[in-house]
ABC transporter ATP-binding protein, Fe-S cluster assembly ATP-binding protein
Amino acid sequence: FSGGERKRFEVLQALVLKPKFAIFDEIDSGLDVDALRDIARQIKQLAQKGAGVLIVTHYQRILKHLTPNQVHVMVSGKIVKSGGPDLAARLEEEGYRSFR
């Protein structure tokens, strides 16, 4: 299976197992535009069914399809800033330097 297919299976598995909480670590890494859209749609379905969702990402791409309740910036394993979706946009523009 390709990386994108494995990531789709990861999200589908969560939809089938119906966890109370799901963590997706870099679920958007290496995905093409269509796969990213599909995975975001499936993550929305999971959240709409009542599951809590934590997405770890280094890019804002997936946030074009999902609107987070909270955004946390981690530097050296510690949360250094928390906020709303605007924080992700700020991080994308300024990089991590402004959070150190």
Notes: The chain has two domains: 1-67, 68-100. Helices lie at 3-17, 33-48, 85-94. The mean pLDDT is 93.
